[in-house]
Amino acid sequence: MEVRIGQGYDVHALAEGLPMWLGGVLIPSGTGFVAHSDGDVAIHALCDALLGARAMGDIGHLFPDTSDEWKDVDSKILLDIVSRKVQSDSWTIGNVDITIALQAPKVAPYIDRMRETLAKVMGISPDRVSVKATTTEKLGFVGRKEGCEVWAVALIQRL
Ligand code: MG
User: Using DSSP, how many helices (H) and how many strands (E) does the chain show?
Assistant: First the structure.
């Protein structure tokens, strides 16, 4: 069996009055992420991890923020395109692991829905999708509620 791994990282700024899409789930919050797309910073990091495993570049390259085609796009559509690309040539996704750093609101109540949503888009079972959340103990830009930071890793395999 051939195995490859990729990592992804993304940050988005928080602003008042925007919808908060995170991990494919709409989270009730007075704030949301500033972006050209829907700002789903967790999906963006996940896409970059998947693309990294195949050395296929990054989502900024695939979906340029200068293009009107991707304006306000649902990031689940981006993940669908990326996961199909990455699972070409007999590759399958082994597992993914995502860590979200956000001071508020609490992400924990939404983690299982995120895992189910992301798994469905990628066509894999939720037990292969891990989502973890942390605050930064009020330190740094995350702690000051200025933004959200996400890391992701993805393992892919083929026989
Ligand atoms: Mg992004």
Answer: 5, 7
Q: To 10 degrees, what angle do helices 41-53 and 75-86 make?
A: 10
- Contact at 8 Å (CB) between 112 and 129? no
Among all chains, which residue has been given the structure tokens 């009730």?
28
Q: What ranges in 4-110 are assigned the alpha helix state H?
A: 41-53, 59-62, 75-86
Q: CA–CA separation, 44 vs 41, rounded Å?
A: 5
Protein residues with C-beta less than 5 angstroms from the ion ligand 1: 10, 44
Two tokens, residue 65: 């923020």
pTM > 0.90: yes
Task: Determine the distance separating the centroid of ligand 1 and the alpha carbon of 45, expressed in angstroms.
Answer: 7
CA of 151 to the centre of ligand 1 (A): 12
- pLDDT tens string 66-77: 878 888 899 999
Q: Shortest CA distance to 145 belongs to which of 99, 98, 101, 111?
A: 101
Question: How much distance in Å is there from the Cα of 43 to the middle of ligand 1?
Answer: 8
Place of tokens 């798994």: 119
pLDDT score for 69: 82
CA dist list (Å): 49 to 17, 26, 87, 140: 29, 22, 13, 24
